[in-house]
Amino acid sequence: MPFATLGLSPALVHAAAQAGFATPTPIQAEAIPAVLQGCDLLGAAQTGSGKTAAFALPLLHQLQLSAAGGPRRVRALVLVPTRELAAQVGEVLRSLAQHLPSPPKVAVVFGGVSINPQMLGLRGGADIVVATPGRLLDLAERNAVRLSAVAHLVLDEADRLLDLGFSEELARVLALLPKRRQNLFFSATFPPAVQALADGLLKQPVRVEVPQTAGNEPAIEQRAIAVDAARRTQLLRHLVKEYGWSRVLVFVATQYAAEHVAEKLYKAGIYATPFHGGLSQGARNQVLQEFKDERWQVVVTTDLAARGIDIAQLPAVVNYDLPRSAVDYVHRIGRTGRAGESGIAVSFVTPDAEAHFRLIEKRQHLSLPREHIAGFEPAEDPAVALPTGPQGTGGIKGKRPSKKDKLRAAAAQAAAASASAPKKGL
Ligand code: AMP
Question: Could you tell me the distance, in angstroms and rounded to a whole number, from the CA of residue 93 to the centre of ligand 1?
Fold first, then answer.
């Protein structure tokens, strides 16, 4: 189904083509006609599904139709959980709007940076505001923005908004909006608090759900490599060189590790840089832009970059440290293989983290064989040493121990037996 059949103006169909969108993604095909009709929308969709354009295109269409003379008033408000997502959504709106006969003015505001330039940017009004809730309230309190003409509200990544503790700010923003308006609600997950928020906000919404099925699942090749903790940086260097990845996002557990690993890679001649919440907003924006421009080959980050960030054609993600939860795992690996492109997600599984990774696999209904890379085999591999008899965990599906593995397991068992024997006599 081409974009031209969805009811968008020719200028916006052209804008979609200019953005490189040949056909609508499933969520776009369903959401765009409904939003054009003025319906409320409940979208159950992840980042990567094309949800930004699913609301941006019909919003731009409606704003063109309702454009009137006189002072600019904020007619569409997009609330997002993070600064990065705000910047990204603003960029999508501006780029899709650039071919319109009278492009709307898009203002993007978020906390963590000086408020003054944002106040200046809002001088003379704006047609669309993309905002994190806290900063928007600050601006409203300073009379830099008025929300009394908002006709379209988008809540993007509503689950994340609540996760980050924005519910009170959200309620205060909602109280500033006119009662009559269109509400578009997007969330990847629907725990009770998110569902309650949706129920309170939406009137007879059209529901658009994009289940992750074989057809729309991004082609992400998932791999798990068994390695000792102390060899991970060397293994990472080896993989970056071996596969010639143009860009890699590497996830670690702490800001310190992000700095440390990036520095080690850099010293080894790989263009690597850290990205984490300890950097100033200016520095974070710069790293993201430079990564997009392919000036960095490796960005080493905490979970800060796990959600919301879209870097087209990111070929690889590496879990240097494993994520805390299966949900974080999904978000991390979702940074690659976006919009139908293929990607690779590699997890380093150290002996200590083996049990934790099994839990993630269980939650994800995954069973990845533990790979051994020549020269980086772990000294002690619990995947092999664990008993495989009826009382054992059954080992890992898909991984048949090699002769060498079996010998190693037997040696480990013998060592364990001899280590425990004298203790009995103590
Ligand atoms: P989103 O889910 O909005 O974060 O979008 C994820 C990625 O999909 C972005 O890189 C978009 O540029 C891309 N995208 C959105 N719609 C389409 C489409 N119809 N065809 C191809 N790529 C798309």
Answer: 12
